[in-house]
Amino acid sequence: MELSDRQEQIIEIVKENGPITGENIADRLSLTRATLRPDLAILTMAGFLDARPRVGYFYTGKTGSELLTEKLKKFKVKEFQSIPVVVTEDVSVYDAITTMFLEDVGTLFVVNNQSYLVGVLSRKDLIRASMGNQDLSEIPVHIIMTRMPNITVCTKEDLLLEAAQQLIEKQIDSLPVVQEKENGLEVVGRITKTNMTKVLVGLVRDDL
Amino acid sequence: MELSDRQEQIIEIVKENGPITGENIADRLSLTRATLRPDLAILTMAGFLDARPRVGYFYTGKTGSELLTEKLKKFKVKEFQSIPVVVTEDVSVYDAITTMFLEDVGTLFVVNNQSYLVGVLSRKDLIRASMGNQDLSEIPVHIIMTRMPNITVCTKEDLLLEAAQQLIEKQIDSLPVVQEKENGLEVVGRITKTNMTKVLVGLVRDDL
């Protein structure tokens, strides 16, 4: 549903001044009550405004209509990202697995001694490594990790839906959210299929 | 956006007979054109109908407004579920891990010799088992799996959003979709955070 400029103006007026009578809205726009009637009817029917007899119009705060899709299209990674869990590249596979369990995450990000991203460890990487009958406390994670530049990353300003598409296309559970620095990428967050599932549930609960 | 009964009727008429003139719609409802005008204006603005001069009204097929949320609320598991990957309870952990990689899934469902669900194997279960320095080809999966009744299941008639909520609440990646039989639960599908992420992406792409 696309609103006209005038309808947008009405919503703004009611948001700031509601409850407010139709007369009063008309005055502020220098229009007649009659001219506004269809707009007010539409805004009320669409759920943007509500009207109470002898009180006036007030803003429902509802995200009417396909505003929902519009909203969804504008979500950014930073609004939904989780805290990243990182290990350094010389940590053993055994310790990495322990970290994964303690932190209850599905993916670990690997950084070098300057704290820049150098790799990603998925649960699959860890399972594969641990099947090898080797001593897991002897193998450093940099041997088994997926390394730069074969890592898909995103930034906190990226659109949430672009990140979701990356997760699907690359068939991965998680993306590191990074910030570019002079000598590499700093890991500032993670965005996962769990975040996406929560967004889906939240869309309907209206608590986003 | 809630439509009135009359507006719903108008949509039905246009769906079946469009393109159709306003006159014609009014005739079918035994109303005057003037009476219908506000309804037609609202339906057009909201994107349900479109009007072309000298042609008339036609149905856009667009899911207007919060129809999107309404639609989302009605999605069922069966419309989005994936094929389940099952192993029998006497299979070794080693073979289960191999199956997980070959089938490229994050969760395996474990069935007994009657093909009824008895357990679930997550990647975490498999990592934990493979850290134990034991011979993985000697340990049957029923030793390490999460077992009934500690398994959260759903049916294909369940609402997708209920399944999504279960995934979040129980902190799991996947639910078995089951069908009740006389002696147990048959596994007929799986629904995962990947499915949920795809739904999220699809909502905006409008390809659901």
TrEMBL record, chains A, B:
Keyword Transcription regulation: yes
The UniProt record lists the keyword Repeat: yes
Pfam families with a match to the protein in the record: CBS, HTH_11
Ranges of residues in domain CBS: 80-136, 145-208
Limits of the HTH deoR-type domain: 3-67
SUPFAM superfamilies: CBS-domain pair, Winged helix' DNA-binding domain
Keywords: CBS domain, Repeat, Transcription, Transcription regulation
Protein name: Transcriptional regulator CcpN
Organism: Salinibacillus aidingensis
